[in-house]
Design brief:
Blueprint lengths: L21 H9 L9 E4 L2 E4 L5 H14 L7 E5 L14 E5 L15 E8 L3 H15 L3 E6 L4 E9 L2 E9 L5
Parallel strand pairs: 5-6
Antiparallel strand pairs: 1-2, 3-4, 4-5, 6-7, 7-8
């Protein structure tokens, strides 16, 4: 389970944490510091363990893909569980829509100016996605952030980023159109 950074990370007595930059993170990846199957992402300068996926998580991503791709206009591509590069973070959202083509992102990850939609599927990571990831995506200016809340059976939609939050939010339940 990822740690929650909201209000700052827990620091045990006589133990400190060290933040790294996105550039340092990229160098660590290039230098082979992390195993290829290591499940981490950079969130606000901290290396954070990603939540383990279960069948409902992975199946929900497939359902999101199927539904969203029916209405995506040309000039937009999807990516599933792939990195996006922000100023202090490099999260791996479950699903994104980015402006461009597949070739646009062969040498770089999508950044805030490329992104139209970021989606996190949340069952074991709900608190983290509502607090820390929401803050990270809002600060980066991601225009639309969805949390597919598997626990409560709803889609939480956040729009119009404003500082570390979103100015608009809505909850959609079974039968509603998002």
């Amino acid at each position: 389970m990822p740690m929650t950074l909201q209000g700052g990370p827990f620091i045990a007595p006589n133990v400190g944490l060290h933040r790294i930059t996105v550039k340092q993170y990229h160098k660590m990846i290039a230098d082979g510091v992390f195993a290829e199957d290591e499940r981490i992402e950079l969130i606000e300068g901290y290396l954070v363990e990603k939540a383990v996926h279960d069948p409902i998580h992975d199946g929900t991503i497939s359902l999101v893909f199927e539904e969203v791709m029916r209405i995506v206009p040309s000039g937009w591509i999807h990516r599933i569980q792939s990195s996006i590069t922000l100023s202090t973070s490099e999260p791996e959202p479950d699903f994104i829509l980015a402006r461009g083509s597949i070739r646009t992102f062969l040498k770089r990850h999508p950044g805030p100016a490329d992104l139209g939609l970021v989606v996190e599927v949340a069952n074991s990571s709900l608190e983290f996605d509502r607090a820390d990831k929401l803050r990270v995506y809002a600060r980066a200016g991601i225009p639309t952030y969805w949390i597919i809340n598997v626990i409560d059976g709803q889609v939480e939609v956040f729009e119009r980023p404003s500082g570390a939050d979103y100015a608009s939010s809505a909850v959609y339940r079974k039968g509603d159109s998002v």
